[in-house]
Amino acid sequence: MVTCLEPGSRSIFEVGVFLGFSFFFESIVLIVNFCHSKQWTWLIATLVWGFSLEVHSQDARVRLPSITVQEEQHIDAMRVHKAHHFEAKPQAVAPSSLPTVTPSSASLTAHPCAYESEIAKKPPFKTVSLTFDDGPSPERTEFILSILEKYNIPATFFLIGEKVKKHPDLVERIAKSGHHLMGNHSWQHPNFHEIDVDQQEREIAQTQQAVQLYTAEKYFRYPYGNSTCESREQLHQLGYKIVGWHIDSCDWAFDKTGSVSEHDAQICEVKAHNTSSFIDHTLAAIRERGGGIVLLHDIHPNTLKQLEALIVRLQREEFHFERLDGAAFEAFLN
Fold first, then answer.
1. Helix or strand or coil: residue 159?
2. Is 222 helix (H, G, I), strand (E, B) or coil?
3. Phi, psi of 85 (to 5 degrees)
């Protein structure tokens, strides 16, 4: 049986519209009443918690290339050299568990040009300069650049010559940013204490030829921080400024598991409460020095993913960032 509306009565469409508006206004009233109640704090807390989970999950989804076998070997070499540097510090008493000092590493203590890479002079207060060694690396360099661009942070990239030749597009991107410096970090990252003077000259000259296509600036950082008198003289003749660091983040030691071993904590001077946090260790080291040039690497994906959090924490503590060519760091370049 079909029931028809009487003439003058409301159509089904009009009734639907009326009911729809009624439901809408009733909902608004309920929401307003709800927000005036104590339950609104629970709602906001739930939303914030959900948002934080999403941000965390997005961070966890960042995928950078895993380290290669060659990079693993490079990390092992850094560990050995860091131990040698630690042993040679006057205040350090090296335990028997540290690597045996070989004749080549023993020369560190007697070498008149040793340790210029570890800057002893007090840095400018609350001023930081970020530096990244061993690039350029596909995806990783791009990731670093994206974070630096997001926060408008300048940095210096110390580049390996053979990688510059292999990845000119990445070097071009650094150069085109107009915000960052590039430096010479040798051709193949050898230990200058273990190669002859001719090879040292080639390592510098080959990389200079590659990098000078992109920048006229001349900055050099020694692989492993191991300098020699002969190469230093050559660098000065070529017009280079040699760059060390105030803070060694030891990112390589944290990268694999997020924590450092007892041995690595010793040689990197990581405080006991920071052995499971790369960010807390690096911040503690920066606070202790009051600022300075920070040594980081382009090749450690897991610690690179924490770069943004490190920058945010430094900004929160009112550190500001400058390039190496700024007045604040002029006195620290050799």
1. strand
2. coil
3. -65, -40
Distance CA 145, CA 271 (A): 30
**Whole-number Å distance between alpha carbons of 226 and 194:** 10
- CB-CB contact of 108 with 193 (8 Å): yes
**DSSP reduced 3-state for 6:** coil
pLDDT tens for each residue of 143-166: 999 999 999 999 999 999 999 999
Other Cβ atoms closer than 10 A to 273 = 10
Q: Which residues contact 120 (CB under 8 A, 6 or more apart)?
A: none
Q: What is the pLDDT of residues 275-294, one digit of tens each?
A: 999 999 999 999 999 999 99
Task: Identify the pLDDT of residue 45.
Answer: 40
313 vs 298: CA distance, rounded Å? 20
Asked if 181 and 324 count as a contact pair (C-beta separation under 8 A), the reply is yes
Q: What is the CA radius of gyration of the chain?
A: 28
SS3 content of the chain, % helix, strand, coil (to 5): 55, 10, 35
Please tell me the distance from the alpha carbon of residue 183 to that of residue 156, in angstroms, as a whole number: 7
What does the buried/exposed string (b/e) look like for 160-199 if buried means 16 or more CB atoms within 10 Å of the residue's CB?
A: bbebbeebeebbeebbeeeebbbbbbbbebbbbbebeeee
Distance CA 73, CA 133 (A): 16
Residue 112 near residue 95 (C-beta atoms within 8 A)? no
Query: What are 15's two structure tokens?
Result: 């009734």
Encoded amino acid at 84, one letter: H
For 89-104, how does the pLDDT look when each residue is reduced to its tens digit (9 = 90+)?
765 444 444 443 343 4
- CB neighbour list of residue 314: distance below 8 Å, 6 or more residues apart: 128, 283, 286, 321
Place of tokens 């050898």: 190
Q: Which residues contact 29 (CB under 8 A, 6 or more apart)?
A: none
Q: At what angle do helices 39-60 and 12-36 cross, to 10 degrees?
A: 90
Residues 6+ apart with CB under 8 A from 170: 135, 136, 137, 138, 141, 142
Do residues 255 and 303 lie in contact, with contact meaning Cβ atoms separated by under 8 Å? Answer: yes
Considering all CA atoms of the chain, what is the largest pairwise distance in Å, rounded to the nearest integer? Answer: 110
